[in-house]
Amino acid sequence: MGLINGFDWHQVDDVLLDMDGTLLDRHFDNFFFEEELPRRYAAKYGLDAAKAKEKLFALYRSVEGELNWTDLHYWTRTLDIDVIAMTKEFDHMIGFLPHADEFLRHLHAKGKRVHLITNAHMAGVAIKVEKTGLDWYVHRILDAFEVGYLKMRPEYWPICQRLLGFEPKRTLYLDDDESCLDAAQQYGIGHIYHSAKSSTQLPAQRSKRYYSIESLAAFL
Question: Could you state, in order of their start, the residue ranges of all structural domains in the chain?
Fold first, then answer.
C-alpha cells in the first residue's frame, strides 16, 4: 500500500516502531560507533585511526545478528571501555527525526496501540528514553534482550507477538533495517514500510523491496 492517497488507519490496530533510524536520528549511533568509539579504542591501545577502525569493525561483524552485537555491557567488557558512560557523555546528540514526535502524537490521538521494538540494549534505551521522553508516547518498549533474539531473526517474531498481543495482518511496522523488515514480512506482518532517511546527516537510501518513506510526515 502506498501513501499517495493517504493511509487507511481502519486497517491497523497496532503500530510497531523501530527506535534508531525510524524515530530517533541515527546520526548519534553512526557517530558513536563509527567515529568516537574507534577514537577511544585507538587511544587506549595505541593504534592509528585506520587500524583501530579495521580491528573494531571486524569485532562488530563477528557478532552481527546476535545479541552481543548491540549489548553495551558486552562491548564494555570486550573493549575495556565504559560504553554506557560514553553514551551518557554524548547524549546531547540524541533526538527525534523530523516529524517523529508529531507522528507519535497522531497515533495517540487515533487511539492506536503503539509499541517500540528495538534491537538496542536496555541501558542505551534508558538513556534515550530519559533524553527524549519517548516512553510517554508508546504502550510498551520491547528490547531484543527481553525477546532473546534480534529483529532480523525469524525466531524473534512469534515471541514478539506473544508478548505484545498483536494481530499480524492488522499491524503496521516501520524500520530502517531491511533485514528486520524481511523477517517481519515472512512472519506475515500486514503493513510494512521502510524508513529511508535514518540520519539527518546522510542522504535518503530508498529500499528496492519495500515502500520507502523519507519522513514520518507521510503518514500525517
Answer: 9-25+95-219, 28-92
pTM summary value: 0.94
Neighbours of 21 (CB within 10 A): 21
- What are the helix (H) ranges across the chain? 27-31, 37-45, 49-62, 72-79, 83-89, 100-110, 122-132, 144-147, 156-164, 178-187
CB distance 173 to 192 below 8 Å: yes
For position 4, what pLDDT does the model report? 46
Chunked into runs of 10 residues, the chain (220 residues) has average pLDDT values of 66 97 98 97 96 97 96 97 97 97 95 97 96 95 97 98 98 98 98 97 95 93
Q: At what angle do helices 72-79 and 122-132 cross, to 10 degrees?
A: 120
Strands 140-143 and 171-175: unpaired
- Cα–Cα distance, 42 to 36 (Å, whole number): 10
For residues 35-59, one letter each, b for 16 or more C-beta atoms within 10 angstroms of the residue's C-beta and e for the rest, the string is eebbebbbeeeebeeeebbeebeee
Quickly name the fold that domain 9-25+95-219 has.
Rossmann fold (3.40.50)
